Amino acid sequence: MLVAPSALPGFWVFLYRVSPFTYLIQSLLATAVGNSEVTCASNEYLHITPPVGQTCSEFMAPYVSAKGGYILDTNGCTYCRLKDTNVFLASVGTSPSDSWRNFGLLWVYIIFNFFGAIFFYWLGRVPKSWSSREKEHVTVSPGPPTPVEGKTTGARSMTDQSDQSGTTGANTPEKTAAA
Fold this sequence. Notes:
By secondary structure, the chain is mostly helical. It has a domain at 8-92. Helices cover 51% and strands 6% of the residues. A three-stranded antiparallel beta sheet has the order 1-3-2, with helices on one face. Helix 2 (20-33) packs antiparallel against helix 5. The protein starts with 9 loop residues before the first helix and ends with a helix.
């Protein structure tokens, strides 16, 4: 995320652009450190000795105007290569002016993934109307299945069972009234 796209090989530039983390990191980084002045620590200064007859400012002015940074003229000629954080942000491919664009692209990813998840859930789990239409066209033969000649079906009717047990009509109103 902290590498400019120009430093990446061809295919990785595509992945850099597609990844939502690129926009998240750029947005957070630009918001956190953008538009700030840099003060170098004592070990970050470059100590330079100007040529005889020139001051530090005269000697370094063309370089500073081309590359940026600042000169500190106390105790000799020292140079810091960063004057503000926007120079660093530009080196990694972002800018504070892109923060709202990056924030918006992050929301595009979130909304796209939300609706994509709902669509794929619907596609895989919710019954479709075309599958119920196929079930409607299945024909069912009316009536019970007919037994094959010479074979019994193993299930007897209710009248056959009641005739054999001798309890036919035991709870019918006629028998109850006669008793």
